[in-house]
Protein: Glutathione-dependent formaldehyde dehydrogenase
Organism: Leucobacter chromiisoli
Amino acid sequence: MRALTWQGKRNVSVETVPDPILQEADDVIVEVTSTAICGSDLHLYEVLTPFMDRGDIIGHEPMGRVVEVGAESSLAVGDRVVVPFTISCGSCWMCSRGLTTQCETTQVREYGSGAALFGYSRLYGSVPGGQAEYLRVPYSSFNPIRVGTDLPDHRYLFLSDILPTAWQGVQYANAGPGDALAVYGLGPVGQFAARIGAFLGAEVYAIDPVPERRELAARYGARTFDLTDDVNDEIRDATQGRGPDAVIDAVGMEAHGSPVAKVAHQAVGLLPDPVGRKLMETSGVDRLAALHASIDLVRRGGTVSLSGVYGGQASPMPMLSLFDKQIQLRMGQCNVKTWIEDLLPLVEDPEDPLGTEDLVTHRLPLSEAPQAYEMFQQKSDGCIKVVLDPRS
């Protein structure tokens, strides 16, 4: 089959690799019909290179049709499924409490990580990912989300990651009717977080330096702001001088405006992999401009919800501000299956209230994935969300 493989920092290529095969009785093989590039994939492309191996198949936002089933799978050939990015058993102590990202069956204990993830480095199990023609899906009686056949892929695809990630971010922010919610970063997760916040009745303030992203968020009711030096003061002025009740950081470890940490990221990427891995495990720092701005912006007694991915073990935190302002922090990988019951009716609603068909700016064949990664990272050509078609 053809699959997108990691070859080095800022270097991915489509290669011919062996087809996946059933390995356990509850496995299935899925023919991938759509697979998206996630902002988290850019961390593999740029920052987490010490944990990658040449030839790794990447990608963790796929959907498609089941073409082969193990003897104990509850799925059938022909079922249309979305595959969440997490690999969880569904029956351990953590899964039974809705914490599927902490699955005790698939935890990657070598690195002290939670549940294994598709296509996401040694840190999360080096499991072959979904930017490929076919994907082996373990624990198929729990993991995949069976969906209908009438609606296009775009309605369902984002259940794999970014839509439940945004939903969890808003739930962790405890934002609802009458609340003021700010969203830092209007990439795909930030776009959905802003839409969900408005859908749930919050007044949404959305911040991003890219005009096209601000324009898209404004279509769904957000008040948008450029990333300027005084943007926090502008939003405080609009919220009785207090700041919003909650702020979602949808940016993560590669935020603009963090020059020292950016240099550290680049330096780690130049080290031999074993040295780079050790440094990131013990002394790694993140680019924290968005997180620090979120902490500064939120009102006293408010909540900061982290949806952007962070990976530094030595990232400095403004503990005086956190303590003095009595701020609550909520964060973590998304427990996808916990939120599907809430989200599935919304993505199947004929009105498409969250705009699942109004996010993708580029749908390209898998063969063009290397160019798509470069475009997505550089935010060129108005790129907000890329979906790849392995069948083109």
Q: What stands out?
A: The first strand starts at residue 2 and ends at 8. The CA atoms of residues 81 and 147 lie 6 Å apart. The chain has two domains: 2-161+336-389, 163-331.
